Amino acid sequence: MVKTWAEKEMRNLIRLNTAQIPCPEPIMLRSHVLVMSFIGKDDMPAPLLKNAQLSDSKARELYLQIIQYMRRMYQDAKLVHADLSEFNMLYHSGEVYIIDVSQSVEHDHPHALEFLRKDCANINDFFWKYGVAVMTVRELFEFITDPSITSDNLDAYLSKAMEIATQRTEEERSSQDNVDEEVFKRAYIPRTLTEVKNYERDVDVMMKLKEEDMALNVQQDNILYQTVTGLKKDLSGVQKVPALLEKKEDDMESDSEDGGSTDDSDSGCKEEGEPLHPKDQPTDTGMDKKERKKMIKEAQREKRKNKIPKHVKKRKEKTAKMKKGK
């Protein structure tokens, strides 16, 4: 058994080294003895992260460093540590080195996602003691497993995620830890769509939420497999851009639409009952720019209220086609 664990440790360390995650370099394996590179200075081994003296700013830097190693471990090395904590990391030359990977499992292991949630909770608990504004367990889990995060948008994603974590109040954080976090840690999460038992029911639930114009908040639903499987929050298709950044882009587009002037032509008659756009009204030289901008915003907001959502329109078209076919 010990020989098998030594072999597994060596194999996993090679995978971590290949993924460029700081860890001891395996040198030689003989029977149950594994020789690794020494991490330390002179003859003094590097301390465990648990025993390291960290400033507040260093703690925040290491938190961001470690969660990126966790993501790289999952996405590139295809591994989940399964026992990651301050006891299984060394602190040397301002960096963290991950050790003790003999119990690590591949990311398609039946309990991989369960182990990953425990790792996320351990890391959050440790850095929370240093006053770091940590993500929730679910936010960290989704950062690690989200396939739509790439090297191009990684920094923007982390910046936005940490901004949200920093703005979260003490009351919000404690309520999420006590309720949502505990539920999430214990919930079953399918790793692939073949493990989803009632996909049609889940789609109906998300469509109903959308029709009721309820915010598809990360913390407010019981369907948990979207990020792992690479689907959009509403299950309508593949998530190509991280949902966190997609919201940011939508807000920017909305602001630019509201702030800028429209290029709609005046040709054609207005439908009866349709509100007159402020730009179509006679210009009042006494009206200042702020008031005019406010009127344009209100008119556009009113127009959006009456707009039929795309998914509702498609559903009506589909129903009409089916009736026609019958």
From TrEMBL:
Ranges of compositional bias, category Basic residues: 302-326
Alphabetical UniProt keywords: ATP-binding, Kinase, Magnesium, Metal-binding, Nucleotide-binding, Serine/threonine-protein kinase, Transferase
Renumbered residue ranges of the record's region Disordered: 244-326
Enzyme class: transferase
Catalytic activity, reaction form: L-threonyl-[protein] + ATP = O-phospho-L-threonyl-[protein] + ADP + H(+); L-seryl-[protein] + ATP = O-phospho-L-seryl-[protein] + ADP + H(+)
Biased composition (Basic and acidic residues): 267-301
SMART domains in the record: RIO
Segments forming domain RIO kinase: 1-146
Keyword rRNA-binding applies: no
Family matches, as Pfam families: RIO1
InterPro entries associated with the record: Kinase-like_dom_sf, RIO-type_Ser/Thr_kinase, RIO_dom, RIO_kinase, RIO_kinase_CS
EC number: 2.7.11.1
Acidic residues: bias regions: 251-266
Record flagged with keyword Metal-binding: yes
GO molecular function annotation: ATP binding; metal ion binding; protein serine/threonine kinase activity
Protein name: non-specific serine/threonine protein kinase
Organism: Mauremys mutica (yellowpond turtle)
